[in-house]
Amino acid sequence: VDITEIGEVIEFPYNIDDGNSGWLDFGFDFTYYGTEYHRAKACTNGWLSFMDGWFVNADNLSMPDQTLPNNLLAVFWDDLNFEYSGQAYFYTNNADTAIVTWHDVADSRNEGRYTFQAVLVAPDKITYQYNDMGSARLDECTIGMENRTAEIGLQVVRNETYVANQLAVGMLLGDSNALDWLAIDADIGTVDPYANQSIPITFNTSELEEGTYSAILNLLTNDYNMLVNEIPITLNVGTVGIEDEIAELPAEFALHNVYPNPFNAEATISYSLAQASDISIEIYNLMGQRVAMPYDGFQSAGQHNLIWKAADYASGTYLVKMTNGEKSQTVRVTLLK
To answer: Is the peptide bond before 69 cis (omega within 30 degrees of 0)?
Structure first.
C-alpha cells in the first residue's frame, strides 16, 4: 500500500541511524495479545513496539526474547541506517487501519535498499508486506512478534533466507479458525531431567476439504543447546477406501516381556494400551522398594516401547510394574553386569 503521498513523514529527532519515532497515534483501538493499544513507536531498525520507552535495538534477536524492547512487531528487524538512504511514513484512517512504511531504507553497511511495511487492521489483524527488498543481507533479519512480557511470541524467520519481493506475511491474533483442525491438550509444563512426557495432539477434519494441511509446532525449552525446537505437523485429509489398511488398536491393557532378558545397561519395555490414558511404569527391587520410574504421564492408545537405562543400578532381579488406574501388571527382568 503506497502511502508516500498520503502519509506523514516519520521524524527520528535524535538519530536517523538508530532512532525512535515517539508515539504514532492510530485514532482507534488495536488488540495485541489481549491488550488494547491506540498507538505505537517505530524504530529506524525495522520494528514497531507498544512499549513506552525510547528503544533503538539494532541487534535482531530471536522471538520471544526477554531483551528489550518487548511488545514488539519485528517487520524487518535488522541494523538499518537512514543516513545512507530512506524515509519512513505513517498513515491512519483514524477508523480501523494504520500503516507504517520503511521506504528505500539502507542497511548499516550500505549494501542493500529495502521497502516494506506493517499494516494493522482493527481489531487484531497484522500484515507485513515486502515490496522491493533488493538482494543484499536478506538472511540477517528477524521477522515475528512477541507480547509485552516476552513469554509468548511467533518467530517467522531469523537469520535465514526468506524475504522476497512481493511477499506478505499475515498474522491473526484473535479467535481465528485458521488452525481449528489442530489442538494441543497442554501448551506448558515441566518435564523432569532424563524423563519423558507425551503431549496429545488432536486433529479435527470435520470442516476440512480433502488436501494436505501443515503447521509448525514451536517447542520452547530451557535447554540452551536447543531453546527452540521446530516440529513439523502434517495432516492429510482424504477418503479412506475399504481396501486401505487400517492399523488395529490393541484389544487390552498389557505389559509384555522386557527384552533382552537378562540385559546389560539398557532394556526395552514393551506394552500396549487399548485406549489413551494416564499410565506409570515403575521399577522395584525384590525388597519392594521403588528404584526408578521411567514413565509417568499420558499415553496414546497403541503399541509402545520404552527404554530403561540401568547402567547405574546394581546387578540383580527387578520388577517392572505398569499401572493404569486400578489395573496393573508386573514382569521380572534380570540385570547382569
So the answer is: yes
- Counting beta carbons within 10 angstroms of the beta carbon of residue 215, is it exposed (0 to 12), middle (13 to 18) or buried (19 or more)? middle
> Strand 125-132 relative to strand 167-172: parallel, antiparallel, unpaired?
antiparallel
d(C-alpha 241, C-alpha 218), whole Å:
34
Q: Report whether pLDDT(245) > 70.
A: no
Nearest-angstrom CA–CA distance, 110 and 70: 27
Do residues 128 and 118 touch, judged by C-beta distance below 8 A? yes
Query: Using a CB cutoff of 8 Å and minimum separation of 24, what contacts does 218-225 make?
Result: 218/154, 218/155, 220/64
Which amino acid appears at position 230 of this protein? E
CA-wise closest residue to 16 among 45, 57, 38, 51: 45
Helix (H, G, I), strand (E, B) or coil at 183: strand
Among 45-54, 183-192, 316-325, the range of highest mean pLDDT? 45-54
CB distance 196 to 295 below 8 Å: yes
Q: Is 244 exposed, middle or buried (0-12, 13-18, 19+ CB in 10 A)?
A: exposed
- Prediction pTM value: 0.55
The neighbouring-strand residues paired with 49 are: 41, 72
Query: What CA–CA distance (Å, rounded) separates 116 from 105?
Result: 9
- pLDDT above 60 (res 243): no
The percentage of the chain sitting over the pLDDT mark of 70, rounded to a whole number, equals: 93
Nearest to 269 by CA among 213, 230, 321: 321
Q: How many CA atoms lie within 13 A of 156 on its CB side?
A: 22
